[in-house]
Known about the structure:
Blueprint: E1 4-11, E2 21-28, E3 33-37, H1 44-52, E4 59-64, E5 67-68, E6 79-82, H2 94-104, H3 109-122, H4 138-150, E7 156-160, H5 168-185, E8 188-193, H6 196-202, E9 205-210, E10 213-218, H7 220-225, H8 230-235, E11 242-251, E12 254-258, E13 263-265, H9 268-274, E14 281-286, E15 291-294, E16 303-314, E17 319-325, E18 328-334, E19 345-350, E20 356-359
Parallel strand pairs: 3-8, 3-9, 6-7, 7-8
Antiparallel strand pairs: 1-2, 1-4, 4-5, 9-10, 11-12, 11-14, 12-13, 14-20, 15-19, 16-17, 16-19, 17-18
Helix pairs in contact: 2-3, 2-4, 3-4
Bound molecules: adenosine-5'-triphosphate (ATP) and magnesium ion (MG).
Amino acid sequence: MSYLEIKNLQKRYTKDGPLIVNNMNLSIEKGEFIVFLGPSGCGKTTTIRMISGLEDISGGEILIDGESVVGKKPKDRGVSMIFQSYAIWPHMTVFDNIAYPLKLQKVPKEEIKERVTTAARATDIEGLLDRYPAQMSGGQRQRVAVARAIVVKPKIFLMDEPLSNLDAKLRVSMRTELKNIHLQQNSTSIFVTHDQSEAMSLADRIVVMYKGNIEQIGTPMEVYQNSATKFVAEFIGTPPTNFFKARIEKEGAGLMAANEHIRYQVPEALVQALLPYAGKEVDMGVRPEYIDLSFSLEKTPGYMCDATIDFVEPQGSHAILITKIGGNEVKIHTTTYMEMAPKTKVALQVKEDRVMFFDCGTTLRIR
Length: 367
Ligand SMILES: Nc1ncnc2c1ncn2[C@@H]1O[C@H](COP(=O)(O)OP(=O)(O)OP(=O)(O)O)[C@@H](O)[C@H]1O
Ligand SMILES: [Mg+2]
């Protein structure tokens, strides 16, 4: 059995209200760093509040270390939670803030001192123990919240968008530190965010959520390279995946994905899976970095269509090229043609069969 088991977890806030969390199933191993990723309102906070015990569940089961925690008080579940707002007490020093949960547990004074010092060292605020929150920066307050959470040595460490109050630069450095603390403590962690780059850089596995459902569970590379649904392909990656509506047509022994503007030969490996879609429309997705350009306008394998590059947006290490296909904006990520003149005419090709097709009804990947 896994360290944290969530089985058919459900949540309605009112008896006849909508299902905010819809039969969620998830197993987390000891020491894993899990990120819940999804847009605002998809149920991330609700889910971790149910795990922590701050919110009742409407159905299902939650087991931590083999034991059901449903009905147990938050303090008896062995979890620590960090909130977006930090929730540290302004009238207490840093030391007292970190010591607070240990005092509640009636830990002896000497041990409190030792554990607070260790937690403060891990979070690099050892020199600030006598200060009050008002005398510290946002990043330092965040560290106090982290120290207070790790001082109790929780079985599971729950973090709800803990970095979202920090400025962009501090967010990036704090996330590296959080990862570092995680590696040192080997804590089992669930981290909530709607920021896909934060999720990609922190997670062992990402749980992509949408409208109360889990769309996909996988490593950052799995959800990126092998998106299971159209939503995942759209939500993960910047710029996002380019989508085209295309009809699947038989041509000789093969299949074409085509619309008014595009004619693309379906890669052989996908022909079997797409045969049942012949005559029907599908969503075709290509990530910006998997579109290649040909200036000679050759119709080489992978060819999709001709296009005129409208804008070039240099980003330093790469450039984003912007074109329009049938009125839809298409973005291309390139490291090769960074100095291209606008209005250049090119042929667009899908690189190495890196195309994704999705069922228009179920939104599931066709493969
Ligand atoms: N106490 C509540 N009573 C009724 N509905 C609620 C309550 N708390 C949250 N909801 C609803 O449940 C849904 C999920 O909310 P939740 O806070 O879990 O989303 P989230 O994924 O954490 O979003 P965000 O990224 O904005 O924090 C939303 O539609 C929200 O309006
Ligand atoms: Mg939330």
